[in-house]
Amino acid sequence: KIAAASPPKTMARSLLLSACILAGLVAAEGFYVLHSAGLHSTGRLKLSANTLRMASSPPPEGSSSPESLGRRGALAALGLGLATAGSPAMARVVGSPPSQVSQAQGGIQALINPGHWLGQFIGINSHGESWDFDGSTPAQVSAAFVAVLEKLTPAERKALAFEHIDIAEASDSNLKVLTWTKNEWLDVLDVSFKPLGSGKGCTAKVDVYATGFLPTSIPGAPIINTALFFFPFASPSPSGGMLQNNRCNILNKLVQSKLQG
């Protein structure tokens, strides 16, 4: 016979397993930033939403070498990206960037997406739709999305709750946009483009979702949000209804209008 583990032993094993998982996530977060850190021959360390990379300007006379800057950058990465050397640089920022902490952690949280693991099944903090665009190619629809995001009015930004926008990827097949609210909760707009079966149009599969329970302005948010992945949370819209649904409705109208000229 196999004896059942006593409650204290079971709880201790669960806590030990959780500690191991969190330790692994800490190591993974540090490794991810370190792995994406590029050390080039010249530059000043800059923080990015996706990488810690070297800027093109040479270091001032008498300053530390690029190698020593790289070592300090590595320590900063292991400190959850709270480095203060240099100014922030992001992939393709529309408007003002979020805080340096959010820039350093945003790419990591967008990659992990713990808030979307269960959220995509519950539907209270994520929403997906498919849109057909007759007579427009995937390249044209993708370009229309980017043009809309780059030209949002203050009223449209407020309605969408897009305080900060970082276009991480834009191609004929995919569009990935990191968006932060005013309080720096990170959401992702993920769009894939495919030609219609007739070959005379495009289908866009649009997904908008929250990435975590806590905003990325909190140090260590990707790790904490991963530990809280099971915690249900909603994304209500200031104007009523659910935020992600409203975002899809607004973006659909704006993109259709842009394509129609």
Question: Keywords for this structure?
Answer:
disordered N terminus, two-stranded antiparallel ribbon, 8 strands, 8 helices, 261 residues, alpha+beta, 6-stranded antiparallel sheet, globular, single chain, 42% helix
Give the termini distance in whole angstroms: 75 Å
Strand content: 15-25%
Summarize model confidence as the mean pLDDT: 76
Which class best fits the helix and strand makeup? alpha+beta
* Number of helical elements: 8
Strand numbers in spatial order across the main sheet: 3-5-6-7-8-4
Low-pLDDT ranges? 1-11, 31-89
Q: What is the tally of beta strands? A: 8
Largest sheet, strands/sense/barrel: 6 strands, antiparallel
Rg, Å, rounded: 21 Å
In short:
By secondary structure, this protein is of the alpha+beta class.
What would you say this structure looks like, in words?
By secondary structure, the chain is α+β, with helices and mostly antiparallel strands. Helices cover 42% and strands 20% of the residues. The chain has eight helices and eight strands; from the N terminus they run αββαβααβααββββαα. A hairpin with a 5-residue loop joins β6 (174-180) and β7 (186-195). α1 packs antiparallel against α2 (66-78) and α5 packs across α8. The longest helix is centred in the first third of the chain and has 30 residues, at 7-36. The protein starts with 6 loop residues before the first helix and ends with a helix.
